[in-house]
Design a protein that fits this description.
Helix content: 40-55%
Mean pLDDT: 79
Number of helices: 11
Number of strands: 11
Low-confidence stretches: 66-70, 386-397
Largest sheet: 6 strands, antiparallel
Strand content: 15-25%
CATH superfamily of the largest domain: GAF domain
Structural class: alpha+beta
Distance between the termini: 163 Å
Length: 410
């Protein structure tokens, strides 16, 4: 099939108009497909982006019969995806008959299952920014002419600008959401919520920017183990993981030893034989990101966030959780210090009451042995004589003695 020059220019104009106002990758791909159906006999259109976080090719595949938002996502290593070859070499790739291709068997099987018999991939590049590849899967053998291939490369260049703008906007939006989440977590930390309520609020904020199914906050105890300070999980069966445990054989042990985040997957089961880690796998958890609760005095515990999927943890998510761990660590340290000060204050108040009781008891004992104020007020006889100068006796007492003497002699 050879498209006329007028058809090609009309398709380019339609593409420019179609991309305007699109605000996600699926709708961008749908707009592209709408403008190219008269030029390329494709069944599937694919936007394949190089994922810098995982080093893989992430493909968004849209059927000609599909609508915006109905794209399928496929993730393949660079060397297992034809789009990876295009991204690396920055050259178009034409496979007229997919059945005869042997370099990418995994992709070939995927194409066959969807009825794809020919493939055309062109580089998706904006300036120096190599984004990925733009691909078209055809239901019949297809070998484009030089003009048609040049047209597809031109379309890919224009489309790359729109994709790059979308990705930049998405990154700005993601960063804004993270900053907002950090701010909301800070507000929650200074509130007067109970530990469970506080952590529930933090987990809800985290879920806005990081996929999670289970989260746990642990603190070091005097026995060298970890106490579960708070737990968030929508799954009741995971509540059994709340018990204190020893960190040995857990990702948390590496976190406490190094002060750095650790990511572990189900495939690391042999590396972490701790029964708590193994039980989490049995309950359906497939990965965990454990970050330190850091304070100026060191690491006091860990924040563990788990998922029930095998999706790889992005470095940006790990960095974000590390920031949250630092915030929580300082807040928890302040709370523990405040609690210790209150305990000291209560102990001092109790000791003060005890001492006051002891003082009152000593005074009572003094009153019993003649040291009280009433007894001390009675005047003592001077050693050199009494008030009348005779024998040091009181006049009243002498008269009493004389009366007693006369009565005894009569």
């Amino acid at each position: 099939m050879a498209a006329s020059t007028a058809e090609i220019y009309r398709a380019v104009l339609t593409l420019s108009r179609s991309l305007a106002g699109r605000n996600d990758l699926e709708s961008l791909l749908s707009g592209l497909a709408d403008s190219l159906r008269s030029i390329v006999p494709f069944e599937y259109a694919a936007l394949v982006l190089h994922d810098r976080q995982t080093g893989q090719m992430r493909g968004y595949i849209l059927s000609e019969r599909g609508a915006a938002g109905a794209a399928q996502t496929v993730l393949l290593p660079i060397d297992r995806d034809p789009a990876g070859w295009v991204w690396l070499n920055q050259r178009p790739l034409v496979i007229p008959a997919l059945d005869a291709e042997t370099r990418w068997p995994e992709f070939q099987e995927l194409g066959r299952s969807h009825g794809v018999h020919a493939l055309v991939d062109v580089p998706l590049t904006s300036g120096e920014n190599r984004l990925g590849a733009l691909g078209f899967g055809c239901p019949v053998p297809y070998d484009p002419t030089a003009d048609e291939l040049a047209f597809l490369e031109r379309v890919a260049s224009e489309f790359a600008v729109a994709v790059e703008a979308f990705l930049a906007k998405q990154e700005v939006s993601r960063e804004r959401d993270r900053l907002r989440t950090l701010f909301d977590i800070t507000k929650a930390l200074v509130s007067k919520l109970s530990p469970d309520e506080l952590f529930e609020a933090i987990a809800q904020q985290l879920a806005r920017v990081v996929q999670l199914d289970h989260a746990v906050l642990t603190l070091r105890n005097e026995a060298g183990g970890l106490d579960t300070y708070a737990l968030h999980s929508p799954l009741p069966e995971l509540s059994e993981l709340r018990k204190p445990f020893h960190a040995e054989g857990m990702p948390a042990a590496d976190v406490l030893a190094t002060g750095k985040p650790v990511v572990a997957y189900a495939a690391d089961a042999d590396r972490y034989p701790n029964p708590v880690f193994q039980r989490g796998l049995q309950l359906g958890l497939r990965s965990v990101c454990s970050v330190p609760l850091t304070t100026p005095n060191g690491t006091i515990g860990t924040l563990g966030v788990s998922r029930r999927t095998e999706e790889r943890w992005k470095p940006e998510d790990v960095d974000f959780l590390s920031q949250v761990g630092s915030q929580i660590g300082i807040a928890v340290q302040n709370a523990l210090t405040f609690r210790q000060l209150n305990e000291i204050k209560e102990r001092l108040a109790s000791e003060k009451l005890y001492l006051e009781d002891e003082i009152r008891f000593d005074q009572n004992i003094g009153n019993m042995v003649g040291e009280g104020p009433a007894f001390q007020s009675v005047p003592e006889e001077p050693p050199g004589g009494g008030a009348d100068g005779r024998n040091g006796s009181h006049p009243g007492r002498n008269r009493n003695r004389e009366r007693t003497s006369r009565e005894s002699h009569s």
